[in-house]
Amino acid sequence: MTHGHEVLHMMEGNxxxxxxxxxxxxxxxxxxxxRFYTCSEEGLDARQLVNxxxxxxxxxxxxxxxxxxxxxxxxxx
Length: 77
Hints:
Strand order of the largest sheet: 1-2-3
Shape: globular
InterPro entries: Metal-bd_prot_put
Number of strands: 5
Oligomer: single chain
Strand content: 15-25%
Radius of gyration: 11 Å
Number of helices: 3
Protein name: Putative metal-binding protein
Pfam families: DUF2492
Order of helices and strands: EHHEEHEE
């Protein structure tokens, strides 16, 4: 299982057109069967993780119309 912070770090310096593009990038990097955990959840697949992170304000819009990680909303542990 991989911590959600790994996905947030993967996003640094990158922009994604939409949630599906991010999900695809996560699957490409970590594999379709990988499960993720966070400070409060575990066993999430890529789609569930993206929705979880979005619901918690971990993303911000970019000038190109996409989105990236909001570093100010990333917990520091």
